[in-house]
Amino acid sequence: MPLLTQTIASQARDIGFPVRRLLPTRQARRVGPFVFLDHMGPAHFAAEGSAGDVRQHPHIGLATVTYLFSGAMMHRDSLGTVQRIEPGAINLMTAGRGITHSERVPADIRRQGAAVEGMQLWLALPDELEECEPAFAHYPAEDLPHWSQNGVELNLLMGEGWGRSAPVAYPLPVFYASAVMPAGARLALPEGVEELAAYVAAGELDVDGAALNANELGLLRTGQGGELIARRDSRVMLLGGTPPASPRYLDWNFVSSRRERLAQARADWIAQRFPMVPGETEFIPLQ
User: Fold this and answer.
1) What class has domain 4-241?
2) Is residue 75 exposed (0-12), middle (13-18) or buried (19+ Cβ within 10 Å)?
3) pLDDT of 223 strictly over 90
4) Taking the mean position of all CA atoms in its chain, how far away is CA 4?
5) Distance from the CA of 17 to the CA of which of 52, 57, 70, 248 falls in 20 to 30 A?
6) Which stretches does DSSP call E strand in 168-208?
7) pLDDT classification of 12: cutoffs 50, 70, 90
8) In the predicted model, is pLDDT for residue 15 greater than 90?
9) Would you say the C-alpha torsion 131, 74, 161, 27 has a positive or negative sign?
10) What pTM value is reported for the model?
């Protein structure tokens, strides 16, 4: 049976800067608990002003996971959190019953003309925790497992793999890792992940004889081992885990197992019943 079961091409979007969207699509609504996947940038921003800043906006029923390859972003949320995220670190924001946040380009990154590039994903919360209290956690790069094996530079961002465990806590079994692979390098797939996919952020992979190209997400068959081979110098993101018990519905920035909850969240944002980011007045209207 083929290791690569499906290939999903990215769709270009503009959210104030370019992104490539991989999830959700008609082919796949999720991979494990991951229900949304954007590859951000690389983007350069004007030295002055706020072009490219993402104004405050709401979420419910999910957790956002931000990981950067280059540049930096400044996170602020309605809990009062102010956190700069830099390459290699993980920002995990749990929306639960409702949170509002903004993501802005730091002034020094603008002045330097540095490229901002990275990944932002959404995780579904377990059914019983969809309405939990909102929370935020930051994990610096030095706190996450980083090592080299067979020439591959690996960062384990969430979950367990290759005999290591990441400190990022999440209430569903989840796996998330970054691999930088020189041409010809081989990487054995992690064992014990219920659902698994590989996203090629740059380069090209050989997956059991099939090509997985740059900006493509490949759904992988689990339980039979296998490996990825870099046909060129490549950057690969591996993600997966165990899905929530119930299907998830997405509407704008909201995720829920109940359609009526999505309608309530829309009404709450229109009526400005969400908590807001301290010190910020600009916000994104409902779309």
Assistant:
1) mainly beta
2) buried
3) no
4) 21
5) 248
6) 174-181, 186-188, 195-202, 204-207
7) very high
8) no
9) positive
10) 0.96
Spans of all domains in the chain: 4-241
The answer to whether residue 100 scores a pLDDT higher than 90 is yes
Contact 263, 254 (CB under 8 A): no
- N-to-C CA span, the chain: 43
pLDDT at residue 17 greater than cutoff 90: no
pLDDT single digits (tens) 106-119:
999 999 999 999 99
**Distance from C-alpha of 104 to C-alpha of 82, rounded to nearest angstrom:** 11
CB-based burial, 259-279: b 16+ in 10 Å, e otherwise: eebbeebbeebeeeebeebee
Render pLDDT for 158-188 as a digit per residue (tens, 0 to 9): 999 999 999 999 999 999 999 999 999 999 9
Give the tokens for residue 184.
């010809």
Of all residues in the chain, the percent with pLDDT exceeding 90 is 94
Of 53, 181, 178, 31, whose CA–CA distance to 119 is shortest? 178
Nearest to residue 155, comparing CAs of 179, 182, 121, 190?
A: 179
Residues written for the chain: 287
pLDDT of residue 23: 97
* 159 neighbors 166 (Cβ within 8 angstroms): yes
User: At a CB cut-off of 8 Å and minimum separation 6, what does 283 contact?
Assistant: 55, 56, 57, 100, 276
From residue 25, give the alpha-carbon distance in Å to each of 29, 189, 217, 255: 6, 24, 11, 15
**What's residue 98's pLDDT?**
98
Q: Is 71 exposed, middle or buried (0-12, 13-18, 19+ CB in 10 A)?
A: buried
DSSP 57-125: EEEBSEEEEEEEEES-EEEEETT--EEEE-TT-EEEEE-TT-EEEEEE--HHHHHHT--EEEEEEEEEP
Structure tokens at 208: 């059991």
